[in-house]
Give the backbone structure.
Amino acid sequence: MFDHGRMLRILHADLDSFFASVEQRDDARLRGRPVIVGPGVVMAASYEARAFGVRGGMGAREARRRCPQAVFVPARFSAYVEASRAVFEVFSDTTPLVEGLSIDEAFLDVGGLRRLVGPPEEVARILRERVRREVGLPISVGVARTKYLAKVASAVSKPDGLLVVDPERESEFLHPLPVERLWGVGPVTSARLRADGISTVGQLAAVQEAHLGGLVGAAAGQHLWALANLMDPRPVQTGRRRSSIGSQSALGGSARRSLAELDAVLVGLVDRVARRLRSGERIGRTFTLRLRFGDFERATRSATIPRSTASTAAWIETGRALLRAAYPMLEERGCTLLGVTISGLVEAGAEQLELDLFGQDVDRAVDGAVDRVRDRFGSAALTRGVLVGRRIGHEMPTLPDSGPARG
């Protein structure tokens, strides 16, 4: 009996150095040259710049030192969002089963196209040709039986490549790769694994799951052990609403900032995210503050409030408490990126109505009035006093959608 579970069906499509590729597409003078997007912090680097060791998140000074001939260009987020929408139209025209991961990558389930188009590798070839022809951008595609293997394959195939993982040779493909290829292995986990003599995926697969849990924690150990042993039953998920929504701002220039400067960035981000929540008729309960230090290491701080809400004031208060607690560390190590995420989202109608003992009705009325003014006259029609005269950095775009917080 034929095992359909062993068939190729998943594509992971990932645009190559997306921001830099858009710049090279739109300006012929940049093609073939090392291009870096971003003023104070590298937001994207073309592969010509990456050949010199330039990476995203690196400071501009270090990037110039490594690649003196690089061309620095300012970010054009509207161009990137437009390009992303065009690419996702190609995805959706290929198959209705598309799961967007970010502005520049997605999973596609093409298992049902065998009779209409051909095997998944042929669908991937056509997809790459269409993105190049219709949008003018290079894209790498991995084809595999599972989402995780497809994602690894697209990364290995870069730049501008196509890699198919034969279901009968999955271990041969995956196990020689460095353990950092596993989804969820960052610098800290990598250091722990390598200190224990685990440097490849194959070595991790051979370790007892309980031993791995002792190194990195039970949940993480179970997750990594399953991936290393080719266990990933997750389907491509479409039409699902987001479980979280966030925004982050890359901060150019010096990494040293006062609490007041970081507070202004925080308020601007929370204002933006809370409005998206209300536009999508969602409420949330957990606030996460995302930080990147001057040495480009990252950290998060989170808090869960008693009642789900979309109130801007409530989330600003929560975020400020986290920022104040983290500031001694930021004062010492600097800050190059600040982000906020609100998670645990549910429909606004799921909120339990209570007596207005804490001013929620006032907050809702204020938020509603501000939203109506901005909807009619534009986002700049009203701003918070703490933001007047301040430039809060460059917002990093997320996956475009047809409406805030919809997913």
Remarks:
- Residues 244-396 form a domain with the Dna Ligase; domain 1 fold (CATH 3.30.1490.100).
- Residues 352-359, 398-407 have pLDDT under 50 and may be disordered.
